[in-house]
# Entry
Amino acid sequence: MRLLHTMLRVVDLDRSIAFYTEVLGMRLLRRNDYPEGKFTLAFVGYQDESEGAVLELTHNWGVESYELGTAYGHIALAVPDAYAACAAIKARGGKVVREAGPMKHGTTVIAFVEDPDGYKVELIQAKS
# Structure
């Protein structure tokens, strides 16, 4: 077995695709409309689905908002330099909600950004 994808429900699919591809540097791997079900699925990631886990962005037509809930946490991405990643994300219009720095009670450098729907994305600096 292996992890295939994580699904996020999004309000504005084009805005979300732009965030994950233009701000976080992922690629749009595939996008399909399902008119009978009134939804669209888009898959984004850093590598092909056959090589690793990706994100499934689900847009249910006509839905204006979602409650994120309190059980969901965040997506985590490995980055070579969290400080540089935050600067690049801000330069591309992304929202940094926790600047890069050591995690509380530890030494790992982390940061958090937020996607257009309010989902948190943790950046974890690779150990040198």
In short: Helices lie at 13-23, 82-91.
